[in-house]
């Protein structure tokens, strides 16, 4: 068994070897909860959910930390007199949690909020000042990028080629020693709510964005951990700054840097400013959550994923083929399912071991579905049973098994039972018409069933129906 991932810092595939072979440690940058989740947030979270699931299979345990940035300029900017920043952040956090759960993303081992780790952030800042890598300036504290020789090593840039750091609203630009220095602590500003301010050795204020993740990863995973994940748009400046401040403070920090690709509409990155932002709430209202999960998983996690009008229809059709085989095999094999020795196909495992190749793994799933249908056509019960078990195990690993109870609600069950009663009555009427040689009536019933999107399958064991998802 050799698991490999593409390490952003190394710019190469690397063999994965966790610090503790029985417990992989992962830290993934979670949302800044100034507004509700978009479909790109779901794609990012799903990429690392799939990775986590496979690492659990390979190593047995994963300690998975995903933070919530609940204090930030954007959170404060979106607050209103009737909804304070902390209430907005909590409401948006709940929206993210609900959207993640809807598409089967497992809850993290720990999900710390930034506001719960302010003392740890201040401790880290004090260490950086003592080591000569940070300085206070008019109530702000900045990281001195030129004091750290390896600054830029994650994205392989020289300092002078980088974009300058963020500007500060109330502090003169000259307060920074270098325009590339970035804020570790932000002094309280006029007009900001008092409850968004914490006492510190440098005066009242709040943490900068980058220091939050360094402090929380250290608190929950220790000074060194296996994987740091996030969207590719976080490489600079966020992850570059995290790496610099943590290593400058003496922490070995992350051993592997993994980044997921962006979601695009046309050839543009999805963003609110461009007006091409797809809210997760809207997508999940109109599309089966399992279909959304499949569509977001089907592209390699490091590639860009273009959302097109056909994206979800193609995912629905692919799931329909899996579901139809499972239903057909279950009917044919019945309760007397042959005993089969079936595990994950080697090609499936090899695909996921090779930088989480989900597209290649899904190809194996569909190859097995085709083989299973062929076995059913040939009456090979053992081969069909083996394919059924393998398909269940593979889709189970990916969180894409249509038979998983997660994807069935009580309402779904009631609707399915009601639909089954109606369709079975029509099937019985069709059978009576055929028995009486009333072919016109039989054809009329068949056409009415087809017009409703129902597919009939006549076989030696009777007629079975399924919904046409093609």
General description of the model:
- With 470 residues, this protein is α/β, with parallel strands linked by helices.
- Helices cover 45% and strands 15% of the residues.
- It is built from 14 helices and 15 strands.
- The strands form 5 sheets. It has a 4-stranded parallel β-sheet with strand order 4-3-9-10, with helices on both faces. Strands 5-6-7-8 form a 4-stranded antiparallel β-sheet. It has a 3-stranded mixed β-sheet with strand order 12-11-13, with helices on one face.
- Helix 4 (118-130) crosses helix 5, helix 5 packs across helix 6 and helix 13 (410-435) packs antiparallel against helix 14 (439-451).
Average pLDDT, all residues: 90
Assembly state here? single chain
Strand segment tally: 15
Uncertain ranges: 168-172
- Spatial sequence of strands, sheet with the most strands: 4-3-9-10
User: Can you summarize the main beta sheet?
Assistant: 4 strands, parallel
Helix/strand/pairing category: alpha/beta
Order of helices and strands: EEEHEHHHEEEEHEHEEEHHEHHHHHHEE
Q: Report helical residue fraction.
A: 40-55%
Range of strand content: 5-15%
Rg: 27 Å
Alpha-carbon distance between the termini?
37 Å
The number of helical elements comes to 14
Q: What is the overall silhouette?
A: elongated
